[in-house]
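Q: Could you fold this chain for me?
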Amino acid sequence: MEDAIMLNKPEIYNILEQRCREIGFTMPSDLHIGSLLKTLVASKPAGNFLELGTGIGLSLSWMVDGMDAKAKLITLDNDLELIKIAREYFGSDQRIDIICTDGTEWIKKYDDKKFDLIFADAWPGKYSELDETLALLEVGGLYVIDDMSIQPNWPEGHQENVDGLIHDLEQRTDLSITKLNWSTGVIMATKLKT
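A: Sure. Below is the predicted structure, expressed as structure tokens.
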């Protein structure tokens, strides 16, 4: 199974991994979640996508691989060094808007087209501004988060944040959620018509 994912990796992925090592970036995404994102993005022709937490662009590379020619993607992060690296590799793709900004402020101010898929891999959109983020999701759209299982880089007390988020998602009547004990711990939710 791992071999299939390795064969499915975006061409740019190994280069981005090397850049991670060069700059000491210690929060790379899991190959499994990347493969899942590619598949989900590919299921939404001409889709409008949002990634909260660009990082160095590893998950972005999977999402881009799943996009068709008419798809659009906004990705944002507040780390200028990481955004500069992502722009090196994805900045010329007219389908992608790479933004260096505070996620909290961006989520609160965004008032354009809703998204078919949101991958929330940063604090804003996941542990804060959850209501505002989910309001940006189209009915039938997918909300995807990972790192729901204990990770070695978690700060002390982070399990309480995760437990609180899971509880909040489980209580919502506007989502159908699935918790996957797989990869780094994944939750996928679909926005329901209310």
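A (continued): Residues 41 and 66 are 5 Å apart (CA to CA).
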